[in-house]
Amino acid sequence: MSLVEFQFMLKQLQVQNYALIESLTLELDTALTAITGETGAGKSILLGALGHILGQRADLKSLRNTSEKCVIEAEFNVRSYELQSFFESNDLDYADSTILRREILPSGKSRAFVNDTPVQLQQMKQLGERLVDIHSQHQTLLLKEQFFQLELIDAYAKNHKEKSQYTEVFNRFKKIQRELEKKKQDRDRLIQDQAYFKFQLQEFDTIDLEEVDESELEQELSTLNHAEEIKSVLFDGTNRLNGEELSILSQLKQMLQNTQKIGSYGNKYANLFERLNSSKIELEDLALEFDQLQGEIEYDPARIQYLTDLQNKIYSLQQKHLVNTIEDLKAVQSDLEQKVDSVDHLDETISSLESQVKKQEEALAAAAKALSKKRVAVFESFQGEIKSLLDQLGMPHAGLEVHRSAQEPDPTGIDFIEFYFSANKGGRLLPIGNVASGGELSRLMLCLKLILSRLKKLPTLIFDEIDTGVSGNIAAKIADLMREMGEQMQVITITHLPQVAARGQHHVKVYKDSEKEQTTTHLTVLNENERVEELAKMLSGDEPSDAARLNAKELLAGNA
Questions:
Q1: Nearest to 212 by CA among 301, 309, 335
Q2: What are all long-range contacts of 471-474, with beta carbons under 8 Å and residues at least 24 apart?
Q3: CA 309, 310, 311 angle in degrees (round to 5)?
Q4: What angle, rounded to 10 degrees, do the helices at 146-157 and 326-392 form?
Q5: Nearest-angstrom CA–CA distance, 15 and 46
Q6: Is 172 exposed, middle or buried (0-12, 13-18, 19+ CB in 10 A)?
Q7: End-to-end distance of the chain based on CA atoms, in angstroms?
Q8: Where does 76-136 have alpha helices with state H?
Q9: What is d(CA 4, CA 7) in angstroms, rounded to the nearest whole number?
């Protein structure tokens, strides 16, 4: 099974009611497909339709018939590109054969679908960017982006392992660094609040909450506040139970003596004696307790004041801290103690984190150095290969150098990579965005993407007339490079050059039909004889000569 069978592949494009297209289906295959047609036939319309699938904004001008909706649908083979995570994160149904559909309604509104699930246009755009890369002379801005230049170098150096290791260390370093910064901020905030916490804690110093029972405190204070009344009641009780005259106990003793005399006359009288005797014992105990309690109680104004102050302090703290019990106050006190002590604990944590940060800085420096070393090591061979490819494309005096400058570690490393380029003999090498024309940039981009196609999986690549302004042998060289890329991925080229069209393994012709009331764009996949005729027309005009047909056959023969 060849490599191309595992690459992104645009299998089919269907377009209805779009611009000059009434209804059109384009079946595509792997390798290099050439699309040709006269100027204005509708080649750019095909790209425009595909652009809507890739997330381009739409308007009513897109509709051929403004009373009907426009439908554009593209089917992609995405099996080998590990896009399951994208589908999962966007709550979409994954399928190896994925269909993107765009509908533009007569009202001007549009709808987007991925595998029949409605999606936001931004979601379709994000997916589309992973499926198709459209490249034209006007779409070379990517070449000027530093991240693209760095990606090229990393791909060329086969830095996947080193980049993964660096990213892992960098993320770990940043995580610890963020944690350290947070702990420092916590410490600074606690230092500012510590004086207040200490003040609050001092309010607890005059109270030993472990020794306080709020219920017992309330009972003792109530007893002291009513000491005279309690003492009077106890004294009266003692006298009534065991006083000198007519006390309850003295009368009970007389009753016991009398009852004892009749106890022998029957059990019921004996029982009366026993019951009276039990009552006497209980009342004697009560009399003793009354007397003891009377002796224990003493009115103590100082003690009352102390307990009242203690109770007021407890109530005040409970109200201040919005709690209801002694246990709640203990929890508040413990929390304040922890906050006061937490600065010391944070200092220990910060010291530990600073040690970890230092250790990670050393690991990061080592990982960054290893990554940078591999990057720098390929500069010369990368520059040489680009030079060789540019020579083939008719730019023998062009030169490209990779410049590196050091930067602070970021997610990409410590290297700021910038391509310097000159297309002319003796020309001064300058940053790539300052010196190259559109055609030169296109050819340079073709070289870079050829190298990339050898090193990593790329999406379906569409070249939109990047061969404009070249001819003859250079055009053939461009076609050879695109065909080589087609061995690794799906490449589609829209071209006016027969040399390029002849290199395609597949050839699609776009043409207009004006026989009906409206002009309509059509397309057809050409067979061998039709290709000869199309190439002959491209070589010599609408009425090709036999010599042009012979030339066309020679071009195709060279493609075999």
A1: 309
A2: 471/497, 471/499, 472/499, 473/394, 474/393, 474/394
A3: 90
A4: 80
A5: 8
A6: middle
A7: 21
A8: 84-89, 121-131
A9: 5
CB distance 187 to 346 below 8 Å: yes
- Cα(380)–Cα(371) distance, rounded to whole angstroms? 16
Which is nearest to 371 in space by CA: 229, 159, 182?
159
**322 contact partners, CB below 8 Å, separation of at least 6:** none
Instruction: Output the tens digit of pLDDT for each of the chain's 560 residues.
Output: 344 444 558 999 999 999 889 899 998 877 899 999 888 778 888 888 998 988 888 877 888 888 999 999 999 998 877 889 899 999 999 999 999 999 999 988 999 999 999 999 999 999 988 888 887 665 555 677 788 899 899 999 999 999 999 999 999 999 999 999 998 888 888 777 777 777 777 777 777 777 777 777 888 788 888 888 888 888 888 888 888 777 888 888 888 888 888 888 889 988 998 998 998 899 989 989 888 888 788 888 888 888 887 888 888 888 888 888 888 888 888 888 777 777 777 888 899 999 999 999 999 999 999 999 999 999 999 999 999 999 988 888 888 999 999 999 999 999 999 999 988 887 888 888 776 566 777 788 888 888 888 887 778 888 888 777 777 788 888 888 888 888 888 899 999 899 999 999 999 999 988 766 788 888 899 999 999 999 999 998 888 889 999 999 999 887 66
**Which residues lie below 8 Å from residue 193, measured CB to CB, with a gap of 6+?**
339
pTM for the model: 0.65
| 8 Å CB contact between 500 and 478 | yes
76-80: long-range contacts at Cβ-Cβ below 8 A with a sequence spacing of 24 or more? 76/8, 76/9, 76/10, 76/11, 76/100, 76/131, 76/460, 77/8, 77/9, 77/11, 78/8, 78/131, 79/6, 80/6, 80/7, 80/8, 80/457
Which position has the token pair 């070449």?
A: 143
Rounded to the nearest 10 degrees, what angle do helices 160-202 and 326-392 cross at?
Answer: 160
3-state secondary structure of 12: strand
Taken in order 202, 203, 204, 206, is the CA torsion positive or negative? positive
Beta bridge partner(s), residue 522: 511
Whole-angstrom distance, CA of residue 501 vs CA of residue 36: 7
Neighbours of 260 (CB within 10 A): 15
462 contacts 44 by C-beta, under 8 angstroms: no
Give the separation between CA 270 and CA 253, rounded to whole angstroms.
Answer: 15
Side chain identity at 297, as an amino acid letter? I
Structure tokens given for 543:
């009425």
Residue 551 in contact with residue 472, Cβ under 8 Å?
no
- Please name which of 454, 485, 542 lies closest in space to residue 466, comparing C-alpha atoms: 485
Taking phi over 0 as left and psi of -120 to 50 as alpha, with beta for the rest, 136 belongs to: beta
Length of the chain in residues, anyone?
Answer: 560
Phi, psi values for residue 332, rounded to 5°: -65, -45
